[in-house]
Design goal:
With 168 residues, the protein is an alpha/beta fold. A 7-stranded mixed β-sheet has the order 3-2-1-4-5-7-6, with helices on both faces. Helix 2 links the parallel strand 2 and strand 3. The chain is globular.
């Protein structure tokens, strides 16, 4: 938001699927935004981070549902997650856009939006970040998703960018 994102698709009352929730710091902010009538499904696969997510971030937040799972296998949490308005992905994987697109296909409502925090150095440490950002965008567009905006997150997060898009 500090970098001028034109729209933030996380709104009061929304249901959000948060991929890569880690210890829950950012997910707790999402929880505050969606409020009591919203829901944040928090997917995390690292045991230590998941423990912190459960014990610290989601313990006193009734609108957070921690899910010990791997975002690469979205069908494994199908029994927990219902359709969502917003999908937020903050995963450090070399195939971030592909993982996001599979989760979009499974869970995002037709008029829903997604946000992808692309971590260029998690994909390739030697390649130019702008090339990586464009390639991740292309992956999403080739899957039929609309990219509305791309914003580099420097100096807040070096070699990161946020992609905002929608299912249609």
């Amino acid at each position: 938001m500090l970098k001028g994102l034109s729209e933030v698709p996380i709104k009061p009352g929304n249901s959000v699927l948060y991929l890569g929730a880690a210890s829950g710091t950012t997910a707790s902010h999402v929880s505050d935004i969606v409020g009591e009538k919203g829901r944040v499904y928090c997917v995390e696969f690292a045991q230590r981070s998941f423990r912190d997510l459960v014990n610290n971030a989601s313990k006193n937040r009734r609108n957070m549902t921690p899910i010990f799972g791997d975002a690469r296998f979205p069908e494994k949490y199908r029994s927990i997650v219902q359709g969502v308005n917003t999908l937020y992905a903050d995963i450090a994987q070399p195939d971030q856009a592909r993982i996001l697109s599979e989760n979009i296909h499974q869970y995002l409502s037709d008029n829903g939006d997604f946000m992808l925090a692309v971590k260029a150095r998690s994909i390739n440490v030697s390649e130019e970040p702008s090339t990586i950002f464009q390639r991740e965008r292309t992956v999403l567009e080739e899957k039929g998703y609309r990219v509305k905006e791309m914003i580099r997150l420097d100096p807040f997060e070096k070699d990161h960018c946020m992609i905002l898009g929608s299912k249609r």
